[in-house]
Known about the structure:
By secondary structure, the chain is an alpha+beta fold. The chain folds into two domains: 16-52 and 156-371, MetI-like (MetI-like fold), CATH 1.10.3720.10; 73-147. The chain has 13 helices and five strands. The chain has helices at 14-24, 26-48, 73-83, 117-121, 163-199, 201-216, 219-230, 234-260, 264-271, 276-284, 289-312, 324-333, 340-367, and strands spanning 90-91, 96-98, 101-107, 126-132, 140-147. Strands 1, 2, 3, 4 and 5 form a five-stranded antiparallel sheet that branches. Strand 4 (126-132) and strand 5 form a beta hairpin. The radius of gyration is 31 Å and the shape is elongated. The mean pLDDT is 82.
Amino acid sequence: MKTTAAAPVRGRSLWDDALIRLKRNRAATLSLGFLVAMALACIIGPLLTGHGYDQVYRSYVKVGPSLTPYPRAETVAPAARRALRRARVEVGEDIVIGDGIVRIPVSSEGELDQRIVRYIDRGDIFSGARLEDLAADGRSAVIVADIEQLTFLFGTDATGRDLLTRTLIAGRISMTIGLLATVVAIVIGVTYGSLSGYLGGRADLLMMRIVDVLYSLPFIFFVILLVVFFGRNFVLMFIAVGAVEWLDMARIVRGQTLTLKRQEFVQAAEALGVENIGILRRHIIPNLTGPVVIYMTLLVPKVILLESFLSFLGLGVQEPMTSWGVLISEGARDIEGNPTMLLFPALFLTSTLFALNFIGDGLRDALDPKDR
Length: 372
């Protein structure tokens, strides 16, 4: 009688076990989903709002958030009168509004100049103005114009720009700076720290003293020096933040490397004649992945906060581009007149930071070898 061999049992790797533990952490998984949704909203959202991030609506400065489109029906007639104030015409009392069109009766002591419709089209409320029902003597007519329907879900800022679009664009800048600066900090910190810890001796002493000297430089002083040489731009933020934050990573990696290089598998590789670069690349750095990934999730919110702080001081992203720090700075100046200018950017920033911190806590628990 033939017996079928049982299928080999496939074991779980440490990474598979960590992934299962991470999925069980509801706060971390929800935060990861929220972060993905936030990134997609910042990438795709500005294309769907119907407003440019630098488009100015002079007729809608500091308007509040609303689900219904502007202008309000009660503001159309006063806006038409204000627009024709310099046209030297008499505006009738019976302004008719309906079906997205306004009809404004006008009259003049002399013959009407047909160019008066330009006064109507100058603002953001009306468009396509034209003269109709012109009298035989040319002294009276009706100006007909389309009413532009504009929706501002988050309202507008102090210059009349859509706050929703600018908040989403600011998210692009803040998260991009956070990710890029974090990648730079990790690449430099992991390379520097692992090399220092593995070489040891005088090399380690010299490399760590260099880190101590860089630690002693005030961050703001370092940023001001970069502003003098590079100016205020996106590259400055990338260089300034990334070139400073690698110091913590280097210290963390050095401490882990000092522990790893005493392990049996590293000593075996040394006994087999593997070069130092090969040991670092194959044995030391791969075993540092857990702490590095955890620190990366905690470094991204720190970098975003640093960028917001620098932009708040006026040393970061410059107009017309924006970031969450810039928007919070503008909202803080106008908090009494329009608190929503501060509320929405601050809400986006704090929710993103909370999500990143929850993900970091989840990864720390999932990758902790003492908690398996």
